[in-house]
Structures are given as structure tokens and as C-alpha cells.
Design brief:
CATH architecture of the largest domain: 3-Layer(aba) Sandwich
CATH class of the largest domain: Alpha Beta
Protein name: Alkaline phosphatase
Bound molecules: zinc ion
Strand content: 15-25%
Structural class: alpha/beta
Number of strands: 14
Radius of gyration: 25 Å
Mean pLDDT: 92
Organism: Dokdonia pacifica
Cofactor: Mg(2+); Zn(2+)
Keywords: Hydrolase, Magnesium, Metal-binding, Phosphoprotein, Signal, Zinc
Largest sheet: 10 strands, mixed
Shape: globular
Order of helices and strands: HHEHEHHEHHEHHEEHEHHEEEEEEEH
Low-confidence stretches: 1-6, 8-27, 34-41
GO molecular function, one term: alkaline phosphatase activity
Number of helices: 13
Strand order of the largest sheet: 5-6-4-3-7-1-8-13-2-14
CATH topology of the largest domain: Alkaline Phosphatase, subunit A
Length: 375
């Protein structure tokens, strides 16, 4: 036997010794093995809050870093992904097709609200969860009948059919809503009085102010229509509407034993982008960021709430380039008055949040929520 072979045998015997020792330990009673991965440890979320910052890409989010004195609430997320936003009809999506992808998990044509490419209605996550006993809410700074909120409760061929969308909301399973769009309920071309119809359908409706101190009954629904069209711009004195409406919605919805689904849209970040108006855009962005802080505080306390924050698309081709080559001075600028095709980020917090990392299609958000809820 060569010395080398002897060494090999010696090492092998050592291994045997060690493995025997290990075996002995494993035969003694052991405490239950903890789950192997954090994914398995995660329980299913009870509540879902989806926040849509319309028209918000990375640059819009970055602007909070340079134009706001407080750290951005976006920095509180650990799980971040990117979505591809093209629609079935166009490389660059609009808000209707984008929100329908989130709400129904399908790619459809630009302009479509809750319908597929054959204009057939597709069930939305809000409707599906409502059927399972969830309380539901939609909040926006646009008209409440605008493309993004509408895609969660209405099914029409074209986004501009806001009177039809108002009728759909009136008869929908939505329990709480707040936003603008009063004229589509009380100054309609068909002369119908949808405010009366809302009351008939168990809604308490307020068209003058957001009563943040109100006592809310679980056997009632609540609707706030606080402007004829969209709500005012933040820089024109909208005040804390989005924050207060979200706080009020949360205090009402969280009382539901079965859980809730809430969609909150920062609608006018997109409008600031369309207008190529950086002050408008950044004002809306900071407003949304504050609401995000409120929602994250709620989710942190609650521990059963999954928060998903994303955008339907980027608007404006917004950049934070230097001012004439001076790298110590930023001059916000735009490359288009429309939307862009760039991927947009997804941020997730709460049970199941890690599922939202990676790069995927916008339709996956719906599928991921349903998988987490085991639906
Ligand atoms: Zn837009």
C-alpha cells in the first residue's frame, strides 16, 4: 500500500466516524424542524392595498429624494420588482389597459375598461374578493370614473364612457369610494339622478366635504364625490384629501372580519407629466409619498396586510438631467407629452411581498395576488 493510498483510507475512515456520529445525534428526539425558507413561513395576507402612482417611473420617485426634505417612504420597501407595461394593442400602454392588466390579469387594448380584446367583460380582483366577503374601496384624485379606478369595478369598451362607468359604480360591489366626478352622477345627458340611486343602494353620499370624524356603520356604504371633474391639483390647494380619504377608508374597511381590498391612485402624477410641468408632478409625487407612509404604518401595525405600490406606465419621459452640464444642479425635463414604454417599479410590503421581486409582465400582479390568497 502506498503512503498516498493509506492517507486516503485514513481520511475515508474519519469521514465514516463523523457520519456515524452525526447519525447518532439525529436518532435522538429532535424539536420540530422549522420551515426551510422564509417563503414557507409567510402566511397569506388578509388585506390587500394596491397603490397606483399613475405615470410614475424611477425618475418621478427619485424626485422625492431631491425635492422633499423628508426621506421618501419608498425607501421603506425591501422587495422591489419591475414590470413590462405594453398593452395588447400598443407598445406604449394607456391607463385603461394598464389598470385592466392589474385588475383582471389580462392584456387588452388601449382604452379598454375591464374588458378583453373582444370587449368581453373580465372579472376584476375587486369583484372576486367582494364575492368572498371582502370589503372593498377605491380612492383617486381624478374623477372616480377615470380609467384607473374604473378598471376595478366597471366593464366598458372605452374609457371616455364615464357616464356608463358612474352607473357601474352605483350598482357595483364597491363599499367605499372617494374622488372627483360628481357631474357624471348628477348632471348626466340621460338626466338620471345617480346620487338618489346610490342612496337606494345603501350608500351614504357626501358631495361637499370629507368628514374625517364621522362614525361609520358597517352596514352602510360610503361615497365621497368632491369635485365635478378631477380633484384640484396639490399645488392649487387640494390639501390633504388623498391622505385623509385613505385614512378614512382604512378605518372603515379594516372593521371587516373577512379582510379588505383597497385601491388608492395618485392620479395626477400622470397629469403633471402630460403637462410637462415638473412643479405639478413633484407636488403630486410628494403627496402620494405621504399617503404611502400612512399605508405602510397601517400595514406594519396590522401585520396581515400586503401593500403593493406600482404604476401603470411612465409619463413624460421625465429626467433629472443636469442644468447645462452643471452636475451640482438638476433641471427636470421631459422627452414627451405622452407616456413612455419604460419598465416601471413595483414595491411590496407585508405577507407575500417577496413574490413581487424580479422582472415580469404587469398581468402577473393580479396572478400573484390570487396565488397568495390561494384563489
Ligand atoms: Zn396618462
Amino acid at each position: 500500500m502506498s503512503r498516498f493510498r493509506f492517507q486516503l483510507i485514513a481520511i475515508a475512515s474519519l469521514f465514516t466516524l463523523f457520519s456515524c456520529a452525526t447519525k447518532k445525534i439525529t436518532t435522538t428526539p429532535q424539536p420540530p424542524t422549522p420551515p426551510q425558507t422564509t417563503v414557507q413561513q409567510q402566511k397569506a395576507p388578509k388585506n390587500i392595498i394596491m397603490m397606483i402612482a399613475d405615470g410614475t417611473g424611477l425618475t418621478q420617485i427619485s424626485s422625492t429624494q431631491f425635492y422633499h426634505s423628508e426621506p421618501s417612504n419608498y425607501e421603506r420597501f425591501k422587495y422591489i420588482g419591475l414590470i413590462k407595461t405594453s398593452s395588447a394593442s400598443d407598445l406604449i400602454t394607456d391607463s385603461a389597459a394598464g389598470a385592466t392588466s392589474f385588475a383582471s390579469g389580462i392584456k387588452t387594448y388601449n382604452g379598454a375598461i375591464g374588458v378583453n380584446t373582444d370587449t368581453i367583460a373580465t372579472p376584476t380582483i375587486l369583484e372576486e374578493l367582494s364575492e368572498r366577503g371582502y370589503a372593498t374601496g377605491v380612492i383617486a384624485t381624478s374623477t372616480i370614473t377615470h380609467a384607473t379606478p374604473a378598471s376595478f369595478y366597471a366593464h366598458v369598451k372605452l374609457r371616455r364612457m364615464e357616464e356608463e362607468i358612474a352607473e357601474a359604480l352605483t350598482n357595483s360591489s364597491v363599499d367605499f369610494f372617494a374622488g372627483g366626478g360628481l357631474k357624471f352622477f348628477n348632471k348626466r345627458s340621460d338626466k338620471k339622478d345617480l346620487l338618489a340611486q346610490l342612496k337606494k343602494n345603501n350608500f351614504e353620499v357626501n358631495t361637499t366635504f370629507l368628514n374625517t370624524d364621522m362614525f361609520m356603520r358597517q352596514d352602510k356604504k360610503y361615497g365621497f364625490l368632491l369635485a365635478d371633474g378631477g380633484m384640484p391639483k396639490k399645488i392649487d390647494g387640494r390639501g390633504s384629501f388623498l391622505y385623509d380619504a385613505t385614512a378614512l377608508g382604512l378605518s372603515y374597511l379594516q372593521e371587516d372580519k373577512d379582510g379588505f381590498f383597497l385601491m388608492v391612485e395618485g392620479s395626477q402624477i400622470d397629469w403633471g407629466g402630460h403637462a410637462n410641468d415638473a412643479d405639478y408632478l413633484i407636488g403630486e409625487m410628494i403627496d402620494f409619498d405621504k399617503v404611502l407612509g400612512k399605508v405602510l404604518d397601517f400595514a406594519k401595525r396590522d401585520k396581515n396586510t400586503l401593500v403593493i405600490v406600482t404604476a401603470d406606465h411612465e409619463t413624460g419621459g421625465f429626467t433629472l438631467a443636469s442644468d447645462d452640464g452643471n452636475y451640482n444642479k438638476i433641471k427636470p425635463s421631459f422627452s414627451t407629452g405622452g407616456h413612455s414604454a419604460t419598465m416601471v417599479p413595483v414595491f411590496a410590503y407585508g405577507p407575500g411581498a417577496e413574490e413581487f421581486s424580479g422582472i415580469y409582465e404587469n398581468t402577473e400582479i393580479y396572478k400573484k395576488i390570487k396565488a397568495l390568497l390561494k384563489l
